Each structure stands twice: as C-alpha cells, then as structure tokens.
From TrEMBL:
Stated name of the protein: Uncharacterized protein
Superkingdom to which the source organism belongs: Eukaryota
Taxonomy of the source species: Eukaryota, Fungi, Dikarya, Ascomycota, Pezizomycotina
Any GO MF annotation of the entry: RNA 7-methylguanosine cap binding
Gene Ontology biological process terms in this record: deadenylation-dependent decapping of nuclear-transcribed mRNA
PANTHER family, A to Z: HISTIDINE TRIAD HIT PROTEIN MEMBER, M7GPPPX DIPHOSPHATASE
A GO cellular component annotation in the UniProt record: P-body
Family annotation (InterPro entries): DcpS/DCS2, HIT-like_sf, Scavenger_mRNA_decap_enz_N
Organism per entry: Monilinia laxa (Brown rot fungus)
TM segment ranges: none
Amino acid sequence: MMHEYLQPEVLYRPEVFHRCGKLLAVLGIRYSAAKDVMSEEAYRPISLIRDFKFDRLLNQDQAGRRSVLCGHINSQPCLLILERAPFPTSSTYLSSLPITLQSLENLGANDIYFWYLANNGPSQTTEPTDLKINLIYPCTEQHVKKYSKQGVRMVTETPEIYNEKIHPYMQAKRDGGRLNWVFNIIEGKTEVEDVIYRTPQGRDGDEGFLLLPDLNWDRKTMEGLHLLGLVERRDIWSVRDLKKKHTKWLRDMRQKFLEATVKSYEGLEDDQLKFNWKSDGAGEYNRAIGEYGGRRGDGDG
C-alpha cells in the first residue's frame, strides 16, 4: 500500500501528498525533499512562459485584442497566444480604476464626447498603451440606457414602422441636440486636423462628404481600423432615403474614401477594406465605415 503511495504520479497529487507526510517522516524519508520536488513540478508551467524566446508575430486579430507569437523554448518551436482578459467586475476594483490610470493621453474632444489612451497599472512608460477610453460628460439618461446591458431582438422594419415610429424618434433626437457633434465636424468646428479627406466645404452642395478616424478606434492598432465618413447633406437619414439617382454619388464617395485610406495608411490595399453604410442606433446619423483586418463576421461587414 505504501509502495503505491510512493509512486511519483500518485505522491504528487495534493490530496495524497498531505496524507503521506507523517508516514514519510516515520519511515525516515525526507519530507522536505519530496515537497521540493513537488514544488518544482508545480513551477514548471510558469517557467515555460519565462523561457519563451520571441521570433515573430504570426497574427493579431479581434481588433488587436489577441496576438499569436511564434517562438521557441529550449530550442523547441512553440506558439504563445495572448488574449486580453475581461475586466474584473468588483466594485472595489472599478471604483479605483480611474485614479490608477497612467500615461493618460487625450486623443480629442467634440461636444460632450472625449477619448483617451492610457496604461492600466503602475507602469510609467508611455508605450504601449493598453486602454482606449471614451468619456461622455455630461451624459443623459438616453446614454445610460444605450450603454446598459439589454436584450437584443430581430425586428423586420417595414415602411410603415419607419414612417410611424423610427422617423419621429430620429427627429426628436435631432431636435434634442444629439447630432451636434456630427454637425460640428461637418461645419469644420472640431476635429479639423483629423480629417483624412473632404470635398471643398460647400462647393458640391448636397454631394459634399468627408472622412476621418472613428472615435472608437485608438488610431494605432491597424487591425482595428475604423474610419467615419460623413455627408454634408441633411436630407438622407437612413438607407430608406436613398434613391436610384444617388448611385453615382455613392460610388464616387466610396472610391474617394478607399483612395484616401490607402494613401493615408501605409501597407493597406483597397481590397482589405470593408465599406458599409450604417446608421447609429435608430439612425440618428448616417455614416460610412471602412474597416481593415479582422474576420468578416466581426464589426461592420
């Protein structure tokens, strides 16, 4: 019986090791030595990570949140897959998080919206930042509802639902100032230095448009690239307002956006970009988004 317990594969089990401690001492077997062996076995998985030698980056996906590194440990090839863990949900952690941020860098501001980069933790270095932060101040009850956890359902929007429910809702939001930040950009009041491309302001009348980085992009991680296209005209609220006569204008806008993006970001080609006409929420504004990298099922398809 004792012989079976002394087999390494049995002895190193925590529930067996503790039970055998006194017996080992009685038999004159060095308990501490056996314990040291077990500690080394437990430490080995940790030491493997410490011994990893980086060779090259194989891939980065999920908008830069997961990286696959190719390297070696003790001359043997291996892969190290790094993925950001979810934020803890404890009140203690979350309440202290804002004051522990380091290397806070302001990326821009528009109306009640602010966005930043920062390091989460004690590091004083400016590179690399590991958090992209958006601040809405002051926020409204509508913002609170929008960002709260909620169920999602598929609804078939008919012309009647759009005219009777959706359009009046969008009108109320416009009248309440929810699009002020968009109009600020279009009118050249904010984010002027961020604009990648725009037609001469006011020259093309209803056909003017512009392109700039989306506020949800950190402007560094190319795999998560998001660009925001805005049109100067204010009579098109959703895809339901698009007509056949707009086809040439839309194609020209798409081509100009692709050319400007490829020119602005080295290493990109136009067939790596996805272009989508999208409404925010219930269509409070219209935007075209170019997204580079990622899977077709992620983000805006």
